[in-house]
Amino acid sequence: MAAGHLKIETAFATLPLQGQSESGDLSLIKRVGKGTLIAVVDGLGHGQQAASAAHAAVGALDRYSREPLIDLVRRCHDALVGLRGVVLGLAYLDPQAATMAWLGVGNVGGVLLRADVGNRPSRITLVPNAGFIGAEQPHPTTRSVPLALGDTVILHSDGIKDGFAESLVLSKSPQEIADFVMTRHAKDNDDALVLVARYAR
Ligand SMILES: [Mn+2]
C-alpha cells in the first residue's frame, strides 16, 4: 500500500472520585468498519447511580456502534429511561478517509491538536451542545474535521481542568499523554477520565 498502513492509536486514563469504588465516567473505544469510535460518558453526579447510567449509555453505544453519531445519541437517550442522565463526547475517526466526525452533549471537553502547527488552525475545540442526555432528547450537531498524520484528539470529562492542552508534548505516546493529563490536571472533587486518539502510521 503506497499510503502505508494508517491507523488510529488510542489510550485512556481514569480515576474515580476519592472514596468512590465506581467511577461515573466511562469510555468506549471500538473498531467500527475501517475506523474507530471513541466516547467519553459522564453519568450525572458520581457514585453507583452515576456509574449505572454511564454503563447503560456505553452499552447502547457499543450495541449500535455502526449507526451515525447523531443516532447514537438517541440510542443513549432511549437506554437511560429510569436512570440518571449522562453527558457525552463522541467521535468517529476514519483513517482511510482521513476525517473525524464528532459531537458533544453537555459538560464534556474535546480538542484536536494538529501535529503540524503550520496546519491552521493548529487546535480545534469541540463545542458541545447544551443539556444532557436522558431528559429531553437533545439534537446535537455533528461536525466533520479533516485529519492529518500525527493529529491527536483528546476527549475528557469535566473532572479534568481546562487548559491542559498547553502543557502537552505531542511527541509522547497516547498513553503517556493520557497518564500525564490524569496526573497533572484531574480535579479532586469529581470522577475524571481522559481519552486520547492519534491518527498514525
Ligand atoms: Mn463529571
Describe this entry's structure for a reader.
It is a single chain. With 201 residues, the protein is an alpha+beta fold. The chain has a single domain, classed as 4-Layer Sandwich (Phosphatase 2c, domain 1). Helices cover 19% and strands 35% of the residues. The chain has helices at 48-63, 69-79, 174-185, and strands spanning 7-15, 25-32, 35-43, 86-94, 99-105, 108-113, 123-125, 143-146, 152-157, 192-200. A hairpin with a 4-residue loop joins strand 4 and strand 5 (99-105). It is globular and about 45 Å long. The mean pLDDT is 94. The chain binds manganese (II) ion.
Gist of the model:
With 201 residues, the chain is an alpha+beta fold.
Major sheet attributes = 5 strands, antiparallel
CATH homologous superfamily placement: PPM-type phosphatase domain
Helix/strand class: alpha+beta
Number of strands: 10
Rounded Rg? 16 Å
How many domain units?
1
Mean pLDDT: 94
Count, helices? 3
Q: Roughly how many Å apart are the termini?
A: 12 Å
Order of SSEs, N→C?
EEEHHEEEEEEHE
Portion in helices: 10-25%
CATH A-level architecture: 4-Layer Sandwich
Overall spatial form? globular
Q: Which percent range describes the beta-strand content?
A: 25-35%
Q: Could you please say which CATH topology applies here? A: Phosphatase 2c, domain 1
Give the CATH class. Answer: Alpha Beta
